Amino acid sequence: MTAATKWVYAFSEGDGRNKMLLGGKGANLCEMTRIGLPVPPGFVVTTEACLAYLAAGRLPDGLMDDVRAHLARIEAATGKRFGARSSPLLVSVRSGSAMSMPGMMDTILNLGLNPASLTGLIEATGNERFGWDAYRRLIQLFGKVALGVPDEAFDQAMATLKQEAGVRLDIELSAEHLHDLAQRYLEVVRAKSGHSFPEDPQRQLEVAIAAVFRSWNGKRAIDYRKQFKITPQMANGTAANVCTMVFGNLGSDSATGVGFTRNPGTGEPAVYGEYLVNAQGEDVVAGIRTPKPILAMVEEMPALHAQLMKLAATLEGHYREVQDFEFTIERGKLWALQTRNGKMNAPAMVRSSVDMVHEGLIDKRRALLRVAPAMFEQLMVPRLDPSFRGKPLATGLPASPGAAAGMIVFDADTAEARGKSGAKIILVREETKPEDIHGFFAAQGVLTSRGGRTSHAAVVARGMGKPCVSGAESIVVDVRNKVAHIGPALLKEGQIITIDGSTGAVYFGEVPTVEVEFSRDMATLLSWADEAARLGVRANADGPREARRAREWGAQGIGLCRTERMFNQMDRLHIVQEMILADTKQARVAALEKLRPIQKEDFKGIFKAMDGLPVTVRLLDPPMHEFLPTVAQLELEIAHLRHFRDAIASLEEMPETLKLLNPRLHHQYEGSLSKLLGGLSEFKESHLDDDLIAKKSEVLKKVRAMAEVNPMLGHRGVRLGITYPEIYEMQIRAILEAAAECIREGLNVAPEIMVPQVVTVEELKRIAVLVETIHAGVEAASGCKVPLKFGSMIEVVRACLRAARMAETAEFFSFGTNDLTQATFSFSREDAENKFLPLYYDAGLLRDNPFEVLDVKGVGELMKLAIANGRAKRPELKVGICGEHGGEPASIRFCHHAGLDYVSCSGPRVPIARLAAAHAKLLEAEYSTE
Ligand code: PEP
Ligand code: MG
Question: Can 456 be counted among the known catalytic residues?
Fold first, then answer.
């Protein structure tokens, strides 16, 4: 930085679009000032100053001179003087980076107070209680943020004073009490930090700016950036916003509140929020007092309510986005203190997108782009089973929708530890604070006994799409003893509860849940997505039910039907086992003939569900032993059977032994013993046990013979079709006969047969011959023309390299990126994710899990090569992807650019993929693989 660097911008001069330099909050304060909204005068110390401070360990030279010059401008504008006894000016210093990180960094209020200016403040306001309250808040915040004094030390002093004063609420403390409290706080600061609280206001300001800058590197800010993948390109350093204090706690004509221009839980187009009369902002956010809904202002402060509605409309009209704003009313004057884009849950985002287009506020492009595809996952949040009629233990506010069950945990650290070991958790707190953030990450849901719908717990949970019930006041949390009194019940840590964030109810035990339905607004938004997208979206579905559901969610066909999933159903598994264990081809064919009608019915069901749309069916893929019991299981069963046989043998000897031991007893039981033995000998003669032992031993022998060290690289996929062509013949016939029957019923079918694990074109050709022969036979027998496409999965590296040859035989490619990732990395897809991959992300060796987010630099390059060479041979070659990556937004974006025709993913991810496909097209120009 040069000496001429401008470190400080007045709200009236800063560029409202430059969030990187001014931070989101600072830029918006500048913007609100520019459009004439009532923002208290102030200035922004830039993020560049923050970075310079963090690099050098001290504020840049000249910065405080600039700050003083800007302070003088505020003094001129307000007629007040910073630190002066008469008309003292007080300021706040608030953090704010380019990306919103609510509550993750620090803020200090009421700077400029010392004994002299405090006297002036009391004179100016005529309110002694207010003055001392402001002073003690400054000492507390400054002590905590700038001097590192733990919160508990102040809480303790407050609790002791309240006890001595015999009051329960802060609000009941008198001016004298607060005066006393301020002295105690000053002592706490001295004792805990080893420094006196600074009385010089300039010094307070300097230390406060530095402390806010340091909070950029605080643990919770770092955790938050890591969790939400906020890179330095997105936000680098925090600004410090210095703003004239306005007070909502100057009496009954003052108030403070927060609002959304639309309901962030439902998207309903009405201002939504809460306020508290005679209070400061932190009282609302911390949930210390339960606020009133903004609607209550109509009665209580009608003129200000009207002004507030106008302010909200101006904000939304200007930003063309739902705003989350903070306001204060100081003695009847409304001030706007902050605005930012509102974090809403997925249903609210969808509804507001559709509404704002209909209102003419935004266009469809913007409506689509403002909804992150991953958010749609929230729309798949489970609800309580509607038939459930249980009585709640307690009820709080429905703060973030969705239902979740889990074990009660009372603190964030335990939640994190238990969450890591896989437990499902409900974090139960009196109220939450920003330092609880890691507990939110670990929990399925959050329950608090205090606070409103805009309390910290509610806002954070909603942002994360996790259910939250807040303000359940009948719950008494006893963190020390790890118990909570919920109504009449006493619940301990580890016990299971269910919370319903849509109704506010809390239930004992685990309540069953059901999946969500598609809303009309969702269908509308996704229809716009389909219009915008180039890439098609299909579903991976293995049966008629899934196919129907996928179609409801907008799938444009099936990209992968894994036929083995049909084999696994209970009514057919024994036939499949019979087929696998058959000693001769004839016996195998006999078993397959029993399977064929069953598979045919499944295919018919799928074709019906997908009438008019393509259905890609994959021939059998997994290694056969997956359908058989394991060696360990068989050995155990055989051992049990042998024990049983031995037990019977020893029973037969029982009468003789008993006679020797005790003739009287033998005589007594002789009759019933011989009856028992008679029954047993009948059983023995049936040889049921011997037969079963022999059968199981035979199976065991086969299972042992079929065992492979590396089955995922072994006898599977097309290799099965080559060794046992009768299996593929049966499947091909079932597909084509089902298609022919559907055609005869008047349906429009488009079957596509796909071969898995192809390595050489010769494999593909062999299967192609089978398909052609059976196809011709079915057409001849049914007398109808059956449309058919034949293609190959591309999931081994060699297939990518030999794509040109593959395309001679294949009419389409479908990338099986699960296996292709495994093959490219040589990472076992079964083990890598829970063995070493987490360490790889933590150590920065890999940015993402390659089984989740497509590795564009490795796997992606192979795909591009295969597509180019395949299409060079067959220009009309259709290309899709059916690995898990087909439902992941960043991977979908790559697929769009790589020229794929469609992605295919699990049904519930179809909406995500549709939106991601639209985003890929709309953001085409900004794409980079870096
Ligand atoms: C794949 O490998 O990507 C694929 C879709 O097949 P499966 O996951 O069934 O091996
Ligand atoms: Mg595969």
Answer: yes
